[in-house]
Design a protein that fits this description.
This protein has 7 helices and 8 strands; from the N terminus they run ααβαββαββαααβββ. By secondary structure, the chain is an alpha+beta fold. Bound molecules: adenosine-5'-diphosphate. Adenosine-5'-diphosphate binds next to α4 and α7.
């Protein structure tokens, strides 16, 4: 019930903007070319935000209710991360960000759901680009620590205060400074990431300092040497 209430509240804001823009256009209050275009852009932007929100909500609630089953197969984690980094390269270049990666070749696979894991790193990289642009640098590295695979996404962007670090994994939470800076987002990405990682028996942690940058580390257990059949991952905790 609390989730439904929060979702409805969050959907109302972009809807209200779209409706008032539409009303001004329909009633002829806005007529001149540049202003009409400005309203068009507003509707397009808020419409996109609604689409993102609905997609993330569907994904999030599917995982939460256990409806969307995560299939576990041996996923080659190095190539998967490399793929995601390569796909983000043009976005990083456009934002004048130097995107570095350090991926050893001999990593063991991770037992997991490939699309879900892809989504984890896509979200972390998208955030690093959005909130790290001022630093002009992002680094993604993957390493093996004992029987765990650690993937770190680091940026030198706006950073996150200690008080906010404890809240950023809550659904819909967004730091006041990113809202004030009008950086677009739904506040659902990291909660989705955390759920997926936990469903894989892993963990996500953050180290950050305002003004200095952020470092998110995902820890995933490496798949064991024994042959693995298809299994279904446990439902996300929380
Ligand atoms: P969104 O990016 O859509 O707002 P997320 O759940 O992905 O939602 O992130 C929640 C909040 O955590 C963001 O609004 C922002 O305040 C903070 N955050 C996430 N990643 C970073 C980052 N790399 N640098 C600074 N702040 C971040």
């Amino acid at each position: 019930m609390e989730f439904v209430a929060t979702v409805s509240h969050e959907l109302r804001t972009p809807l209200a903007v779209i409706r008032s823009a539409a009303e001004n256009l329909a009633d002829g209050i806005v007529e001149d070319g540049p202003q009409v275009r400005k309203y068009g852009e507003l509707v397009r932007g808020e419409g996109r935000r609604l689409t993102d929100m609905v997609e993330q909500i569907l994904e999030f609630s599917g995982i939460q209710s256990g409806e969307r089953r995560l299939n576990a197969v041996a996923v080659p984690i190095g190539p998967l991360v490399r793929d995601v980094v390569d796909a983000s390269a043009s976005l990083a270049t456009a934002a004048r960000i130097d995107l570095e990666q350090d991926l050893p070749d001999d990593l063991p696979p991770v037992l997991g759901d490939e699309p879900a894991l892809r989504r984890v790193f896509q979200n972390l990289l998208a955030n690093a680009i959005k909130y790290g642009a001022v630093g002009g640098w992002i680094r993604v590295d993957v390493r093996l620590q004992g029987t765990d695979v650690l993937v770190t996404v680091a940026d030198r962007g706006i950073g996150i205060s200690a008080a906010e670090q404890s809240r950023i994994f809550e659904p819909f939470y967004r730091a006041p400074d990113v809202i004030a800076a009008r950086i677009q987002g739904t506040g659902l990405g990291l909660s989705l990431v955390q759920r997926i990682v936990r469903a894989h028996g892993g963990n996500i942690s953050v180290h950050s300092e305002p003004g200095a940058g952020s470092e998110f580390t995902v820890t995933l257990p490496a798949a064991s040497e024994e042959p693995i059949g298809r299994a279904t991952l446990s439902e996300a905790a929380g």
